[in-house]
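ingest -> fold -> write
write: protein_1
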Amino acid sequence: MASVISFPRREVQAIGLIGFAHLLSHLYLLALAPLLIPITKSLQISTVEWGTALGVFAITTGVLQTPMGFLVERIGGRKVLIGGLLLNSAAFCLIGWQVTDFWQLLALMAIAGIGNSVFHPADYSLISSSIDEGRLGRAYSIHTFVGHVGFLAGPLLSATLEPFIGWRGAMMTLGGIGITMTLGLVLFGHLINEGTQVKKPASIGDSLRDILTSRSVMLFFLFYMGASMANFGVTQFSVAAFQGMHDFSRTTAVAALTAYQIATLLLVLPGGLLADKTDRYDAVLMAGFGISALMIFLVGADLLPFWLVMVCLVIAGGMRGAANASRDVAVRRVASHLPVGTVFGFVSTGFLVGQALAGPIYGYLYDHYPPHIIFYASAAFSVLAMVTVLFNSGTRRSPE
């Protein structure tokens, strides 16, 4: 079979290898959630200490993404991806095997964060080099889709394994999967094209200056941050808000959130097809986030019956998912004269900054205002993300 879903065989192989590594990075992020109680009891640590360890993982990832982008441009994305996946996987394996106290956990979570920081800069650089320009939208959408599958698989696997082999066995098994995948990348990494444009001779200072003085790149950073803050309200606070607004049971509220997340996932791939057919990424982003903001606002208005609330959430999630690939292709266009991996590493750090800011903001709003304010705030952050698109020439014509 010479091609699969309109991709040549070599591109399918490259997307598969990069995509599975991306799936594991997402899998590890959420695999820890079902293990909170057994881990804290076993290590005799508090929930605050557990949260601190998770925070160290996130901070390490965020701080190092841009530097990892510079490393990708100098030694190549394959080496960085292999090293990062090995470090990430080995750290989680060692947590299950060796950790006995809080400080050991903290150190290994920091090491895991270092490994996790490579995926955005390395993945996007390698995809950009390995996939034809006319198929980048579909390639990016597959990459995003597979990552979301990791989000779903992580908690399911850890929750399934823990009753049979304990939390330590579950962690070691998941870490072992990543180590095995690392070996696969070593053996078959030649199928992924580095491209002659990967290495950039300019100094790190010059590259960083180019990025920080690029209006389009900085606007994309703000867009990622606003989009992350909008999504955070729905994913992290909607269950509590629904219980307060509608007196929903926890099960019903979780079902509503699940509908939103599944709709996001289902429209990611069609969004990739759309991204390959259009040059007006601004129109796709404005429509996707505009409709999503309107639907989330209606959810918060507390005027609709439950079935319409579910419809609104499905539309909101689907429109966000459909816009993802256009966002990524637009960033790739802006990065045409800049180091690709570094640009993706930098702008995607906006996600982490958004999450860091959103937590206390939504927490304050939930504590001091009626619960529907959560949805109003989420809609407002979507609108703020849309505003950055209006001023970003990189979303609609040749980049600056």
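write: protein_2
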Amino acid sequence: MIKAVVIDDSPEIRAINKLLLSEYFIEVDIVGEADSVESGYELIRQVDPHLVLLDIELNGGTGFQLLQKLKPYNFKVIFITGHDQYALKAIKFHAIDYILKPVNATEFQEAVQSTLGLIEKELPTQEQNEHFLQNLDKKGGSGKIMLRTINALHLVNISDILYCKNDNSYTTFFLSTGEKIMVSKGIVFYNEILSESGFFRLHQSYLVNLQHIRKLDKADGGYVILGSGDEIPISLRRKKGLIKLLEAI
């Protein structure tokens, strides 16, 4: 059995999370709950869980402070958040699963199922955990993004990403090293978190790192040529926006 704990300062949210875990995941044994940094710390030390559902805002501090006290740790975390957009962006950058308040049953199942996959495959997440906690308070970010595939976690320099290509609910990252990394999230997700890092979605299927564009060709509807030689098509309605951004570089 997979041991899980629920740490949240709201009794109602704890009750909902426990109910959903019991209803949808019979392989998960809920071995405790807590509402503060201190009680959460004592609970985790006592029961040694595999999975922690962790609220960001707790009595006596934050979920991040709790993790700092516990590191290095081996359990997997699903964050529960309702308002902290900066924290949520950091969570997304590091490929850590999360649940938004108010809790939605479908989103809850997806987050838990994804994290259970990490536990079942015994994928190591120590580097992910450490990098996340080290860079949580850096407003400018660390210049790296964590990409999760079926079999691995990749810590990638954002500057090494040439472009991303969408394929239904999957996104493939093309790196300057020649490596390709496919992840099971759509391009809309990555457009949201990379747009502030110099990326532009110049086509519904492509998200491009502007720093790697070497030429813009306006023939045949338009496309850009990257330093790698790759040619990426430009959507007509996004061409003006792209030109404006390139002129500002």
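write: annotation protein_2
The helical segments are 11-24, 37-47, 63-70, 85-93, 105-121, 126-135, 187-194, 239-248.
The longest helix spans residues 105-121.
pipeline exit 0
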